[in-house]
Amino acid sequence: MDFIPRIPINIWTNRAIEYLQVQWASSFDQFSSFLKSMIEGLQDGLIMIPPALFILIVAVIAWYLVNKKIALFSVVGLLLIENMGLWIPTMETLAMVIGAVFWCIVLGLPLGILAAKSSTAHRIITPILDFMQTLPAFVYLLPAVTFFHLGVVPAIIATLIFAMPPVIRLTDLGIKSVPTELEELGKSFGSTFWQMLIKIELPVARPTIMAGINQCIMLSLSMVVIAAMIGAKGLGGEVWRAIQRLDSGNGFEAGLALVIIAIVLDRITQSFGSKEYK
Amino acid sequence: MNAVEIRNLTMIYGNNPELALSMINKGYDNDTIRKKTRQVVGIRNVSLTVEPGEIFVIMGLSGSGKSTLLRCLNALNRPSSGDILIEGQSIMNLNKKGITDLRRNKIAMIFQNFALLPHRTVAGNVAYGLEIQGVPAPKRIDLIQNALAMVGLEEWSNSYPHQLSGGMQQRVGIARALATDADILLMDEPFSALDPLIRQEMQDELIALQQKLHKTVIFITHDLDEALKIGDHIALMKDGEIVQLGDPEEILLNPATDYVARFVENVDRSKALSAAAVMVRAHTITYPREGPMVALHRMKSLGISGIFVVDRSQHLLGYLSAEDADQLIRQYERDPGEYMQKDVPTVSPDTLLCDLLNTMARTPIPIAVVDDNGQLQGTLVRGSVIAGLAGERRVS
């Protein structure tokens, strides 16, 4: 099919990146330092908490929100992490996950609501989400590094791209699945747009939205390992170092720590969504 | 002033209502309009009036347009042409604020599947309308308790909807509507999702509640028994049009079309027909003007075995059988006092047949239908009652 001239998407992309890099450098730097100080502050804060106290807090939360079994698992699992000498990288990872999930919710929730309320917004957002979820992470890690340099910031950006779609999609789905009768209830009693949203739609959609946030946390955790390649520290950094040294043992330990954190976070956040009304 | 007045209301679903409207004016039926213009006629040329304080039932099968019509009243649906007056005010040209106002203060709705908010307690659900009205929290508490007391759920205010039975859930829905103090209640098949026994209980409660509160209730149902039981007036709908409008007895006794007649065929008439609808003219003698001789003569000529005795102002005195009259004549007695039966079984004209069948089975003499003033209105003979139950159109 030589009659169609080669469309130089690659060249256009490079030019666009160069252009953004030159013209928007200072804004990227400002944004980058803001995000960096936020994540590093969070990391420092978490590391400052004594492990024993931290374990106690998690155990109490798990007991209160889930059950005794998960509380016990949290205690044993976190003690094991401490025992393996992975406490500090674990806290670094946790801080990145918390930071990424925070931004996923702050950006994703309103976008999900928008997608549910406006079919135009839905038509625009859906293909972007497809893009975000299927584009291989490495493809956007590279430009992320050129914009934000190595370190924790491009890692967070990459995590946002990877982990935000479920929040948007499930918020959209949750609000659209609010029974027609409840929508009619809101309207027939004279509710405004915001009253409908806050008093009816969001609370009724809560289990679905929480499932999205739960997915977001899981995806963030899996992304931090990949993000370690561009200089994010944490458990991903440990895994990455072990891979480079062909040290299966240390690699497994760091992986095990990730799994423990994942299970604890998953069980606790799931309980927000499914908690019965007492 | 009428609570609700609907004039020539038509609603078309589709992107070109004008086209469909012009076809309606030319008399095309809904099917033709749908095939030719791809517009769906929801309701067509509906006119009705609802008086304040009555229960007005809109009845029809699914697809008859009854829900569409109901949702026009609180502007959930915007009709294509015609007019709706709520308490004399047209709502067709209301702006957004006017509609919000109407929905918040004038009209409340009760839903088929209750539409309770699962994350709120019973009290929280009842509070919903009050919150939207902007009633401050401390003032809400009393209003919520009052509304819950009206439906007998004071004890349940801290429970969640999923902990209640269906009947109780719908009571919460009713309490929520009552709490707003709206004058008009729209009830969209409110009891259809309930078990038959609970349904009857709820119908009775609605009637009792209505006698206390005198709301204007517009009630949708597909169940004719329900319509006949609770409706002061009934509008029967088919294909978006009203095929008959009247009170329950008119619909039962004089179905306007074959469609209505078929509908009415299977209804439990004993619960819908009153004594007045099936009673026949009572044959009487007027004492003291007429005595036992006249009584016997009249019985012979009419071929009956007994006759009611009334005074000059039609007050029932008793019942005289042929044997009694014969005895009187033999003793040259004119006053039937000793011989006639004084404890004649009586019912009022609006007693339902189901409530008098028992009496009828036990008594050997006809039942007298007596109004509140004690005046004899007619009598119930077995033949006319059975004919009424069997659904003969005209009961003589």
What is the helix tally of chain A? 12
Which oligomeric state applies? heterodimer
Mean pLDDT of chain B: 87
Residues in β-strands, percent of chain A: under 5%
- The count of DSSP E runs of length 2 or more, i.e. the number of strands of chain A, is 0
Determine the most extensive contact between two protein chains.
Answer: A-B, 19 and 30 residues
- Main beta-sheet annotation of chain A: none
Structural class of chain A: mainly alpha
Could you give me the name of the CATH homologous superfamily of the domain at 98-235 in chain A? MetI-like
- Radius of gyration of chain B, CA atoms, in whole angstroms: 27 Å
Fourth-level CATH superfamily of the largest domain in chain B: P-loop containing nucleotide triphosphate hydrolases
Q: What percentage of the residues of chain B does DSSP assign to strands (E)?
A: 15-25%
Integer-rounded radius of gyration of chain A: 21 Å
Order of helices and strands of chain A: HHHHHHHHHHHH
* Uncertain residue ranges of chain B: none
Discrete helix count of chain B: 16
Mean pLDDT of chain A: 88
Walk across the major sheet of chain B and give the strand order.
6-7-8-3-9-10
Structure write-up:
The complex is a heterodimer of chains A (278) and B (396). By secondary structure, chain A is mainly α. Chain A has a domain at 98-235: MetI-like (MetI-like fold). Chain A is built from 12 helices and no strands. Chain A has helices at 9-23, 25-48, 51-65, 68-83, 87-117, 119-134, 137-148, 152-176, 180-188, 193-227, 234-244, 248-274. In chain A, helix 2 packs across helix 8 (152-176) and helix 11 (234-244) runs antiparallel to helix 12 (248-274). Chain B has 16 helices and 16 strands. Chain B has helices at 17-25, 30-37, 66-73, 96-105, 122-133, 137-150, 166-179, 196-213, 224-230, 248-253, 258-265, 275-278, 292-302, 322-330, 353-362, 382-390, and strands at residues 4-13, 40-50, 55-59, 81-86, 89-90, 107-110, 184-188, 216-221, 233-238, 241-246, 284-286, 306-310, 316-321, 346-347, 367-370, 376-380. Chain B has 2 domains: 52-75 and 92-269, 3-Layer(aba) Sandwich (Rossmann fold), CATH 3.40.50; 276-390, CBS-domain (Roll). The two termini of chain B are 37 Å apart. In chain B, the strands form 4 sheets. Chain B has a 6-stranded mixed beta sheet with strand order 6-7-8-3-9-10, with helices on both faces. Chain B is elongated. The chains are: A mainly alpha (278), B alpha/beta (396). Chain A binds chain B through residues 179, 181-182, 184-185, 187-192, 195, 199-200, 203-204, 206, 277-278, and chain B through 71, 74, 76, 99-105, 107-109, 111-113, 115, 117-120, 128-129, 131-133, 160, 162, 180, 186.
